[in-house]
């Protein structure tokens, strides 16, 4: 019998076993001693032990102690109350080991005392995201756990000197396999405790001398955002990916990068039901086989079967993938009684369709029709129907990898069915649709006509209800959005940030703290708030105040030019928050994408002036009107107030140019704050040096060199992640702003402009969110969202209605009130018009999908289709989110 790696931990001696931040390495000797001590505490009789699977030495030691003591251990996700409550109720573990009040505690529950005994072979339980909401528990034997660790270590050629990066959760079979396979050969595991999105991850990875990295496809997307491949890792030997399909192009990219340095890249495939790994692509078959899952792991066997269960021997013929090996599970468990059983199966039907090529490598071609996989959750449609029936709901369920549809009969409402199915399936409401039938459609043989229901689902997908998913799709149109996407992961910019803030306010009645890092699915699960107060991000508050000051400044003779300065600070702040990942990854195309959103309204203004003047202001077309060699009086450029657009465009190009240089990019990614402070020194130098080298008189105040330091201050504020750094930014502002005011003319306006940036920075640094009355917050958010449109258009009507050469235009109450009111109203209306244009694009696309559906339905179903068309128009209109 194969001895488990947990029985020979002491063989590692003084070699490092666990590397954790801010503490000395835990050696194998120390690990073995602590495991043995805790194992004695657990007692001799076999128990079921539930352990919180945190990225912590305590979780790992408890897991190993349970295995060493011959117990059965269940690894459950941290801070998931639903998962814990369900597990305790269904399986009644004798012992729970988890954090309580910040301390790790071992608690005897007595839940399982006097109950069914645990089978001697059961060693590990991992809960899958199952079809019935609470998830099935996979029962794994100690032989399976030990065997799969040896299998993985074998084909990866792991050795005692390796150090693996553990960035995946321990309750996830892939993450646990990283730990097991390294301990099996006496290697070390580095546990950073942070995300790969952290700016310091690459440096920490290198400093830990990691020899390998294991991630899911999304992990590699995050690495790309951080420019991981642009740095050197002298100890890296190989990288692995599993947990979903990686795009072949990405796989080839990483294989090529690693192969060029004599290193390896492994594509892998697995399921929790096989402990972890089932197959891998030998590196010598890459890059040609980047779309394959490869061959069975050592000691395992893969084959295909047809609908009758007969083996398929021909190549390139699809069938269900079946696996046999020592790592196959004992079976599933739904209750404590199931833990008394031994092995229920000896081969695993994966539920995946695959084909075998001439080289013997398998390729996944799809899933069995009665299954969906949404957000990584595998959902069996039959199991969902059974779960609905248990609640008195007669329904037929169909779906794909994006959505489920429940066709039901009875007196239930559609919303009730949607919510029930979402809870059962463990997914968000945006991924669930429901439709009522008098009778479910059936074939001549009396079976449910699932094909007709699938066509109905396609029509449902063409419509929809106003949801968070609809909002994200509208704001990020035409990009494809998944339920796992977040604003940050989609590379959102400051303009989209404001649009989504407005939309979430409408949908949820509030804007949750940190919403930009929450997935669409998480946001969809939030309830609507009816609180009379709202929490607003301080940068949105500052943006609304800034644009109001701009409008007020241009409508009066008051010396208050500080609004534009604050907007520049917010530009730098926005670059840091929303665009830094693209900059660090060197993705200049994504970084410059927001420039298009800024320029097309601007060029409409240029077009309007060109028509009115009968001449094209070419310097404004080329975005160089602020450089001093053109005059608006000669119609060579737009009026001076549009300098901000030109400076902003130049700012993006300048910033992008800096990050196009790899050494600069690597330095900035390593410490964005330090980079910002050095850039601030350069910006201050440029503020004084460039006007001396390029003297253009008073128009120098519109140049990028004159205002660059304001944007850099915003960048520094965003990355000031410690009290010392925040104080440094404030101190620098207090020192520099008076200097800028004095050298910038030493008049009231210059002192107002620069000195008001100090409290603005203070708000960004120390008051990230503010509480305001709901009505006021809604007004300010709407103004902030439309701020760019207000800026572009706020002087058009006043200039047309009043004589700007008459001082009373800027002093008399009525002209001033009309100027301010019309300026705000014009911008708000233009913003709404732009949103409706985007909605029109989505409507057109929706009708296109509906047309595709109509082309596939019979004439007898056209009545339903026309009804869907009418509903589409109503629901698309209802899905519009406006302030």
UniProtKB/TrEMBL annotation:
Signal peptide boundaries: none
Membrane-traversing stretches: 597-620, 640-661, 673-695, 701-720, 727-745, 751-767, 774-792, 812-833
Domain AMP-dependent synthetase/ligase: 118-332
InterPro entries for the chain: AB_hydrolase_fold, ACP-like_sf, AMP-dep_synth/lig_dom, ANL_N_sf, ATP-dep_AMP-bd_enzyme
UniProt-listed Pfam families: AMP-binding
Superkingdom field: Bacteria
Protein name: AMP-dependent synthetase
Taxonomy of the source species: Bacteria, Pseudomonadati, Pseudomonadota, Alphaproteobacteria, Hyphomicrobiales
């Amino acid at each position: 019998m194969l001895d488990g790696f947990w029985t020979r931990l002491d063989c590692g001696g003084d070699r490092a076993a666990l590397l954790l931040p801010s503490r000395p390495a835990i050696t194998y000797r120390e690990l073995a001693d602590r495991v043995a001590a805790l194992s004695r505490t657990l007692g001799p009789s076999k128990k079921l032990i539930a352990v919180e699977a945190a990225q912590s030495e305590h979780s790992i030691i408890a897991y190993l102690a349970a295995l060493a003591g011959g117990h059965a251990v269940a690894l459950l996700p941290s801070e998931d109350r639903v998962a814990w409550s369900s597990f305790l109720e269904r399986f009644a573990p004798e012992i729970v080991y988890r954090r309580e009040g910040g301390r790790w505690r071992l608690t005897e529950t007595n839940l399982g005392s006097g109950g069914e005994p645990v089978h001697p072979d059961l060693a590990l339980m991992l809960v899958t995201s199952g079809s019935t909401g609470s998830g099935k528990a996979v029962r794994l034997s100690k032989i399976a756990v030990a065997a799969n660790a040896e299998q993985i270590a074998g084909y990866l050629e792991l050795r005692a000197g390796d150090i693996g990066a553990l960035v995946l959760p321990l309750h996830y079979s892939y993450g646990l396999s990283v730990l097991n396979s390294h301990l099996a050969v006496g290697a070390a595991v580095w546990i950073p405790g942070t995300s790969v999105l952290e700016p310091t991850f690459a440096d920490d990875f290198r400093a830990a001398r990691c020899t390998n990295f294991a991630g899911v496809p999304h992990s590699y997307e995050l690495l790309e955002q951080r420019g991981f491949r642009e740095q050197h890792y002298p100890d890296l030997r190989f990288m692995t990916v599993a947990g979903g399909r990686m795009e072949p192009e990405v796989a080839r990219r990483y294989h090529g990068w690693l192969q060029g340095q004599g290193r390896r890249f492994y594509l892998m495939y697995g399921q929790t039901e096989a402990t972890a790994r089932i197959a891998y692509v030998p590196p010598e078959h890459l890059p040609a086989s980047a779309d394959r899952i490869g061959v069975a792991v050592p000691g395992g066997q893969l084959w295909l079967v047809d609908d009758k269960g007969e083996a398929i021997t021909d190549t390139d013929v699809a069938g269900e993938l079946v696996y046999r090996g020592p790592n196959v599970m004992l079976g599933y468990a739904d209750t404590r009684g199931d833990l008394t059983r031994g092995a229920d199966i000896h081969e695993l039907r994966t539920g995946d369709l695959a084909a075998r090529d001439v080289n013997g490598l398998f390729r996944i071609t799809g899933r069995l029709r009665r299954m969906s996989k949404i957000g990584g959750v595998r959902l069996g449609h039959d199991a969902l129907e059974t779960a609905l029936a248990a609640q008195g709901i007669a329904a037929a369920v169909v779906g794909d990898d994006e959505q489920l549809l429940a066709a039901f009969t009875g007196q239930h409402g559609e919303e009730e069915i949607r919510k029930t199915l979402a809870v059962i399936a463990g997914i968000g409401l945006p991924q669930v649709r429901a439709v009522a039938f008098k009778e479910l459609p059936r074939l001549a043989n009396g079976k449910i006509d699932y094909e007709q229901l699938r066509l109905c689902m396609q029509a449902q997908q063409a419509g929809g209800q106003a949801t968070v998913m609809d909002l994200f799709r509208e704001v990020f149109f035409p990009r494809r959005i998944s339920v796992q996407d977040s604003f940050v992961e989609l590379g959102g910019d400051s303009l989209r940030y404001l649009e989504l803030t407005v939309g979430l306010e409408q949908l949820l009645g509030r804007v949750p703290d940190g919403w930009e890092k929450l997935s669409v699915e998480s946001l969809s699960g939030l309830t609507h708030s009816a609180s009379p107060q709202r929490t607003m991000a301080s940068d949105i508050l500052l943006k609304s105040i800034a644009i109001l000051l701009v409008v007020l400044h241009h409508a009066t003779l008051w010396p208050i030019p500080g609004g534009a300065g604050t907007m520049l600070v917010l530009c730098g702040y926005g670059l840091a928050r929303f665009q830094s990942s693209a900059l660090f990854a060197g993705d200049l195309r994504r970084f410059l994408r927001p420039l298009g959103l800024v320029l097309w309204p601007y060029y409409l203004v240029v077009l309007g002036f060109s028509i009115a003047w009968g001449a094209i202001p070419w310097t404004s077309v080329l975005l160089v009107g602020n450089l001093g060699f053109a005059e608006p009086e000669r119609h060579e450029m737009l009026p001076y107030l549009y300098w901000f657009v030109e400076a902003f465009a130049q700012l993006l190009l300048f910033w992008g140019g800096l990050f196009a240089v790899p050494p600069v990019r690597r330095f900035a990614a390593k410490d964005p704050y330090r980079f910002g402070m050095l850039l601030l020194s350069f910006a201050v130098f440029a503020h004084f040096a460039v006007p001396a080298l390029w003297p253009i008189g008073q128009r120098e105040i519109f140049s990028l060199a004159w205002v660059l330091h304001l944007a850099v201050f915003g960048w520094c504020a965003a990355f000031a992640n410690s009290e010392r750094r925040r104080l440094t930014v404030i101190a620098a502002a207090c020192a520099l702003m008076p200097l800028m005011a004095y050298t910038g003319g030493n008049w009231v306006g210059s002192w107002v402009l620069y000195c008001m940036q100090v409290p603005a920075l203070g708000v960004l640094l120390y008051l990230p969110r503010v509480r305001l009355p709901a009505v006021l917050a809604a007004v300010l958010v709407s103004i902030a969202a439309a701020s760019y449109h207000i800026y572009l258009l706020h002087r058009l009507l006043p200039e047309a209605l009043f004589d700007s050469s008459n001082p009373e235009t800027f002093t008399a109450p009525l002209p001033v009130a009309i100027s301010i009111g019309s300026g705000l109203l014009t911008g708000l209306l233009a913003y709404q018009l732009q949103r409706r244009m985007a909605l029109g694009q989505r409507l057109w696309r929706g009708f296109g999908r509906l047309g595709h559906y109509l082309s596939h339905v019979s004439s007898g179903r056209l009545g339903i289709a026309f009804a869907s068309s009418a509903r589409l128009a109503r629901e698309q209109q209802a899905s519009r989110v406006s302030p």
